Amino acid sequence: MKTSNENNRSNSPLGGGGSPLTSLNVLNFSGVQMRTFHITWFTFFMCFFGWFGLAPLMPTIREDLGLTKAQVGNTLIAAVSATIIARLLIGRLCDTWGPRKTYTALLIFSAIPVYLVGLSHSYETFLLFRLAIGVIGASFVITQYHTSVMFAPNIKGTANAVAGGWGNLGGGITNMLMPVIFAGIVGLGYTKGEAWRLAMIVPGTLLLISAFLYYKFTKDTPAGNYEDINREVAKKEKPNTMEVVKDWRVWALAFSYSICFGMEITFDNVAALHFVDNFGVDQKLAGLLAGLFGFMNIFARALGGIWADKIGKKNGLSGKGKLLAVLIAIEGIGLILFAGSTSLPLAIASMVLFALFLKMANGATYALTPFINAQNVGLVAGIVGAGGNIGGMLMGFLFKSENLTYADAFGYIGYAAIVAAFLILITKFSKEAKAAKTILEEELV
């Protein structure tokens, strides 16, 4: 049995101070690890209000600004494309500057375009603000990095999945609440064109509140903030960027994440429009249906991480990889069924099917990611996370096409998911499986 000090030396990437937790009790709010865990997922939850607050209001915005289908598609692409570069940068900043300062700066910076998007009165200005708002999507990388630092290997996948899932839940709640906020403003006597602009003040304010909470109440590591602790241990093992870039497993995970998380953020963007245009529902009901998709994050992503951790204890990274392949394959089948749905009940049922396995795949992906390269956790998380946004950006081109219906686009993505599942299945994640399994066994004795 390891002593507390032994655990600290073996687990802390920075040396000294407190140690990562070996269990996750979500009802515990004490200690720097659990306090950081709760503030991290809560902040990521709030980020979705800024990132996707406009999505459920797009039927109104489309009419107000006179947007064509292609222009709506371009705004969808803009919403996720800026995140690609931002995630790569944020991942490296987490490794060097620390997650606490990085998250605080990102939140303050992102609040500016969220507040100002209401000044848009043309397609061009709306597109630019949508692009700037997309930077907030990099918040996911900090969430996963920070959780990875706070928890030991045996529970890391579960902790990442719960934090990511509860944060992603913000996408569903945003789709549900923003139309209600919009309707409330209209009820006060404002026009629809004024109401969607005023509604964005709410997420902008939430981002600033989150920035204060994050800076005030979190720490970079269990041992303390980067500037307050001895980092000599970490400095002896300098990050090797090329080592990460040359590792095929990183790119395989990035591709798989482009299919699962890429589809998630794409669906958050287009769901309301799809239900309004294809099934004739009103904006409020469309928001509720889109919210159902996002609401499943309350358990589904966590379930994927829990399963991955359990399988990893027996079969290492190879077992986690096989689980991920199965989850993505079933996601693809569900998407194909959703694309062919001719009635609203069938569409809802197939949406729930592909949403369940999509979100579980998200969790399983980040149960693998922290083990790929222990000295470059932030960079690996950034590349894999950026893969999700590259997928969302490419999917956006399908949804903007005048030659494809939204149903056609969903079908093509479903087939792409099956290809991604095969790629994950043949990828050998076992390069460090033996070492990872040894760490897990040591944590459990």
Structure, briefly:
This protein has one domain: Growth Hormone, Chain: A, CATH 1.20.1250.20. Helix content is 77%, strand content 0%.
Task: Give me the CATH superfamily.
Answer: MFS general substrate transporter like domains
CATH topology: Growth Hormone, Chain: A
CATH architecture annotation? Up-down Bundle
Which stretches are low in confidence, meaning pLDDT under 50 for 5 or more residues running?
1-17, 432-445
Distance between the termini: 6 Å
Pfam families: MFS_1 (PF07690)
Subcellular location: Cell membrane; Membrane
Keywords: Cell membrane, Membrane, Nitrate assimilation, Transmembrane, Transmembrane helix, Transport
Membrane topology: Multi-pass membrane protein
Q: What this model shows, in words?
A:
The structure is a single chain. The chain is mainly alpha-helical. It has one domain (31-219, 242-444): MFS general substrate transporter like domains (Growth Hormone, Chain: A). The chain contains 19 helices and no strands. The relative contact order is 0.16.
Task: Please describe the structure with a list of short key phrases separated by commas or semicolons.
77% helix; nitrite transmembrane transporter activity; NO3_transporter_NarK/NarU-like; transmembrane; globular; 19 helices; 445 residues; nitrate assimilation; nitrate transmembrane transporter activity; 0% strand; Growth Hormone, Chain: A; mainly alpha
